[in-house]
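Researcher: We plan to redesign the surface later, but first we want a full-length starting point. Tokens attached.
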């Protein structure tokens, strides 16, 4: 049985007071909630503050981050390493997000390097994949996801997906309110799992596949009712403690 993972990707949002209120709110909302791993990825500058607040709240939240470099130290201006992330207790690191692919020209090959370096450093990649609207309309969704996953499998081997998280995020559903239907998401998740199973059934069976793209408290349950949807990567709704906690609770209830 895969324990669901619900993760909040805060993107470029936050301030000291917002981070404090949000994490304190989540600490309260998640009291007594079991059966789900709940993670947050604040902007890097707030990871220190987040670590302290999570500890104060009794470690109900897993700390993550939104990016990593592929070096641990040296002359790499502006970057942030796995060792530094580990220093602050961050474990779940988002890579391959469509916003980084688009705005920072990150290629499949570069993302595969990040994946490998996170694994080498004992961190958990939260590896985002997903198709554009045009690719979706052209019926290329499964092929795009397979290509993105193959970049990692080719570089790191199938076993590298052990303990990793894949987040299927159709780009057209991100921040648009136009979420994929639960049936469509399930179909793609099943195809992703089958693609991995063709290389290793054992790896496919354990890999967490999250859905991301306009997940809200109102639609969360419909996703988690599906057998191949093991959690969610949440943007907008993760910035509100009650909404994000409601999504996490829906996952815990559906998968218990
Ligand atoms: P929204 O939940 O705001 O659509 O964002 C999804 C996302 O990109 C999470 O990484």
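Model: Full-length starting sequence:
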């Amino acid at each position: 049985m895969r324990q669901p993972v619900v993760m909040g990707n805060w993107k470029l949002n936050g301030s000291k007071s917002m981070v404090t209120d949000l994490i304190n709110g989540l600490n309260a909302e998640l009291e007594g909630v079991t059966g789900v791993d709940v993670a947050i990825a604040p902007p890097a500058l707030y990871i220190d503050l987040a670590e302290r607040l999570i500890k104060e709240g009794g470690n109900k939240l897993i700390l993550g981050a939104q990016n990593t470099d592929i070096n641990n130290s040296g002359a790499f201006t502006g970057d942030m390493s796995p060792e530094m992330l580990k220093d602050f207790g961050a474990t779940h690191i988002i890579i391959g997000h469509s916003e980084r692919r688009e705005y920072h020209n990150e290629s499949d090959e570069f993302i595969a390097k990040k994946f490998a370096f996170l694994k080498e450093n004992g961190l958990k990649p939260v590896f985002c994949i997903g198709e554009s609207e045009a690719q979706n309309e052209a019926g290329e969704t499964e092929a795009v996801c397979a290509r993105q996953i193959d970049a990692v499998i080719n570089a790191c081997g199938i076993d590298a997906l052990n303990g990793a998280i894949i987040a299927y995020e159709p780009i057209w559903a991100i921040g648009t309110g136009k979420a994929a239907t639960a049936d469509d998401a399930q179909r793609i998740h099943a195809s992703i799992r089958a693609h991995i199973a063709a290389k290793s059934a054992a790896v496919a069976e354990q890999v967490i596949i999250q859905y991301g793209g306009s997940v809200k408290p109102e639609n969360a349950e419909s996703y988690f009712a599906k057998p191949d949807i093991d959690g969610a990567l949440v943007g907008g709704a993760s910035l509100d403690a009650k909404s994000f906690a409601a999504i996490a609770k829906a996952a815990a209830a559906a998968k218990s």
